[in-house]
Amino acid sequence: MSLEVNKLTGGYSSIPVLKNESFDVKDGELVSLIGLNGAGKSTTINHIMGLMTPFSGTIKVNGIQINEDVEKYKQEIAYVPEMPILYPELTLKEHIDTTIMAYNLNYASAWEKAHQLLKTFRLNNKLDWFPANFSKGMRQKVMIVCAFITNAKLFVIDEPFLGLDPLAVNDLLKIIENKKKMGASILMSTHVLDTAEKYCDRFVLLNDGKVNYEGTMTDIKQRYSNYGNSLNDIYLALARNDSHE
Amino acid sequence: MNKIFRKRLNSHIMEMVKYLRYVFNDFFVIALMFFIGALSLSYSNLLRNLQTNLWWEPLLVIIVILFSVHLGTMVTLIKQPDQVFLTPKEYDFKSYFQAALKYSYLMASLIQFLVWFILLPFMSISFGWKTLYLVFVLILMLLIKFYLLEIEFLQIRRSHPSPLLRKMLFNWIIPIGILGIAFYIGLPTALFLTLVCIFGVTYEKLHQFNVVNWQYVINTEDKRMNRVYRFFSLFTDVPSLPSKLHRRKYLDPLLKPLKKDQKHLFSNLYLRTFIRDNDTSSLYFRLLLVGFVLLVFVNNQILAILISVLFIYLTGIQIIPFFNYFDDNVLIHIYPVNEKIKVKNFRKLLQLLLMIEMLLLLIGMLIAKDSLQTILISIVLWLIEIYFLTVTLLNKKNKN
């Protein structure tokens, strides 16, 4: 099991944003967190990344909890944030070097992967540039390259589809597919539902910090058959119902 | 649009007044009074011995005025979000920039007046001029300043910045020519020529294409505010505007010997940032330079020891906050790297920087021919100090 979130309650200061949240991501699975703005997607991710401490409940990545072995726990996760975070004073090449250093990767083989990814994302001729000055999509690509050269077991990707060009979205999906075959799992959050519907193995529908429903597309269609036939329709109907309550 | 400028100007002035209160604290005012007193004393001594019609006198006046008219630049108070929020009103911006010009000119004029006032006795002695001619000089300065400001304001609606040659011509060569005519040929001619230049610029302004070059306006204003803040930062904390980065590729060989593994992750980050970002490094080098120069010129042995100890302490204290430089970056918290590595790496860097400073101060002491005793005592004190800064203080900082 790559990720197990068990009865997680957490949030900022003393007001819980997440209430008793439980879900998991199995090995080789791509799971999507879906929810409206403010539903708790990013807060969930922040907890998984170890940036926030839960009030109660546990999070296990590859069977390890963060308080058991911080370094080992973090070694297992790679993260692509929604807003690219870069070092303004480092070049693209140095960003990759930094990732290699931080995750203690093999220099040669990591760079081999990096070159491949950079070529895919058409960044291979910009190694000596400051990526902080790139456009949003290009900065996001840098974050993706840095994350996917690691040997993490779990990849957490916050809204990968906005800002990337269609070619890059397609390439990213291929890269994810590859990682899945190698046994890694991916948890992502997104608003682009039709892409998610096509590629994700399972969905976690979040609402107001609670897991509304968790299952495959077939499960969802069966359960909410009267709401429509696509994830988009079903989700819109669900969200509208909730806001009317 | 006029209202917007007035509102901005009000808050700008409030902000400046707030900072000026910190600048004119008691210590600084006393120091300033001594400074001005000493300067005016030596100036009056100079004037007493001054003779009329020496060859260098008009030259000196020309140089002083030339630099004076370049003081006081364009103030637009344009902010970054304006290019999104105010572009729909772009056609209305004429009155905004008109108001900005008025304000900029007022401020610059005050500077011109001050410089003119200081030059007054010098000019009246060296040229033997009467009141009318001296007033003409003031008018000339004000006109040239107006001409230069108009040129700056022309840039607002120019899609490409002027080439360097053109800038040189309009900003330096023409003023030099006018000033040369003023002090070697005749003031009225110079006044007339300046008026012609102003008409020329105004003509061009009227026939300008009406599109604001936002990038240019925002960049210039940001740069100006940065200068203002940098000055205030000597006295108090100021909002930090993003400072400019320099790639400094020629320094890459310096980084070569640094190992690239997990144990040196933060050494790499800190050192690269130190080299490329001016905030910390310029502070360090300024302290280094001032300390060195002071030690070279101080002959009193006890004073030399005190100064050297003080400068090592100041440098350490000023660089230690750099330890937290990356704290806002989420990546740092996500890396599977032990916190201890960060402290270790930073300590190494701090030690290195302080050792370099030690070496330089030592050279300063040798140049000043300080006694062996002084140098030995200093070295012992420095080492104790470095231990205190890099171990005791840094550990304390890390715990907080």
Automatic annotation (TrEMBL), chain A:
SUPFAM superfamilies named in the record: P-loop containing nucleoside triphosphate hydrolases (SSF52540)
Annotated CDD domains: ABC_DR_subfamily_A
Sorted UniProt keywords: ATP-binding, Nucleotide-binding, Transport
Segment forming the signal sequence: none
PROSITE patterns per the UniProt record, alphabetical: ABC_TRANSPORTER_1, ABC_TRANSPORTER_2
GO molecular function: ATP binding; ATP hydrolysis activity
Gene3D superfamilies: P-loop containing nucleotide triphosphate hydrolases (3.40.50.300)
Pfam families xrefs: ABC_tran
Ranges where the ABC transporter domain occurs: 3-233
Protein name listed in UniProt: ABC-type transporter ATP-binding protein ecsA
TrEMBL record, chain B:
UniProt keyword Membrane present: yes
Keyword Membrane set for record: yes
InterPro entries membership: EcsB_ABC
Membrane-spanning parts: 20-43, 55-78, 99-119, 131-148, 169-201, 283-314, 349-368, 374-394
GO cellular component: membrane
Superkingdom, natural source: Bacteria
Keywords (A to Z) from UniProt: Membrane, Transmembrane, Transmembrane helix
Name of the protein this chain belongs to: ABC transporter permease
Gene source species: Fructilactobacillus lindneri
